[in-house]
Amino acid sequence: MKILAIESSCDETAAAVVEDGRKVLSSAVNSQVEEHRKYGGVVPEIASRRHTENIVGIVDEALREAGCNLEDVDAVAVTAAPGLIGALLVGVNYAKGLALAAGKPLIPVHHIRGHIAANYLAHPDLKPPFLCLVASGGHSHIIEVKSYTEFSVIGKTRDDAAGEAFDKAARAMGYPYPGGVFVDKAAQKGDPAKYPLPHPKVEGSPYDFSFSGLKTAVINLIHNAAQKGQEVDTDSLCASFQKTVAEILTGRLMLAADTYGYRTIVVAGGVSANSGLRSMLENACQEQGYQLYMPPLNLCGDNAAMIGSQAYYEYLDGQIAGLSLNGTASMPIDQPLV
Ligand code: KG4
Ligand code: ZN
Question: Where on this chain does Fe cation bind (predicted)?
Answer without folding.
Answer: 111, 115, 302
